[in-house]
Write a structure and sequence with these properties.
By secondary structure, the chain is of the alpha/beta class. 30% of the residues lie in helices and 27% in strands. The strands form two sheets. Strands 1, 2, 3, 4, 5, 6, 7, 8, 11 and 12 form a ten-stranded mixed beta sheet that branches. Strands 9-10 form a two-stranded antiparallel sheet.
């Protein structure tokens, strides 16, 4: 096993009950409780109509324009895994298309995230599986090999570890370390519930309390 050409098939996945703590919580409310530096950059966006991901990171690191290890990962993934593909941001060759995405969906994959591009966009938009990428490119990938499976990877400005909890919605995507998940979920849900009540008040009365709002997003009212 050589560095740059290896596969770690066994890693600790977050327990399902821990993952479920984040169901229904908007990404914005989670990110507000993670220092506002937790989301992938806006270049990685939903390519499919489905955009809500909730699952466990299965990471793949590949050379730019090559997807041989992506194929291997498809046979290794477990139900509920989210395929996290570090394609080095390559925009010249796609990492996957409709066939690989369909196969992943049939295996119970919870989502595909590619730091790079994909193809067969019309077919992918018809699938129920969420697919995130930087764009679309019809040129197919090479299959020369090398790369790593089950290692930490940089994706859109953040580092994702195998086994991390991946959450996404139409606003973006982030990764949560399992040992931080329980406390974070409580804080994020409190923020969500408080903002929901505030929004209902504004809709009903047209009035809002600025101090209450600022406290929800952890900012103090400026003093004079």
């Amino acid at each position: 096993m050589k560095i740059g050409n290896r596969s770690f098939e066994k890693f600790q996945r977050a327990p399902k009950e821990l993952i479920e703590l984040f169901r229904g919580i908007p990404i914005a409310n989670i990110a507000d409780n993670m220092g506002r530096i937790s989301c992938v950059d806006q270049g990685i966006k939903p390519m499919s109509k489905a955009c809500r991901i909730l699952g466990t990171a299965f990471t793949v690191k590949e050379p730019a324009g090559d997807n041989l290890l992506f194929h291997k990962a498809l046979d290794m993934l477990q139900e509920g895994d989210v395929l996290i593909i570090d394609g080095n941001g390559c925009m010249e060759r796609s990492q996957c298309g409709e066939i690989m995405s369909t196969y992943a969906y049939k295996k119970g994959c919870a989502g595909i995230v590619v730091d790079g591009v994909i193809r067969d966009i019309e077919g992918i938009q018809k699938l129920a599986i969420p697919v995130y990428a930087r764009g679309v490119q019809a040129n197919g990938p090479l299959k020369n090999g090398l790369g790593e499976i089950g290692v930490p990877v940089p994706i859109g400005g953040i580092v994702i570890y195998p086994g991390d909890i991946i959450v996404s919605d139409a606003d973006g995507l982030l990764a949560i370390r399992p040992y931080e998940a329980e406390e974070l979920a409580k804080k994020a849900r409190t923020t969500f519930e408080s903002e929901t009540k505030l929004l209902e008040q504004i809709r009903a009365t047209g009035v809002w309390n600025r101090k209450v709002f600022l406290s929800l997003i952890h900012i103090s009212e400026p003093t004079r």
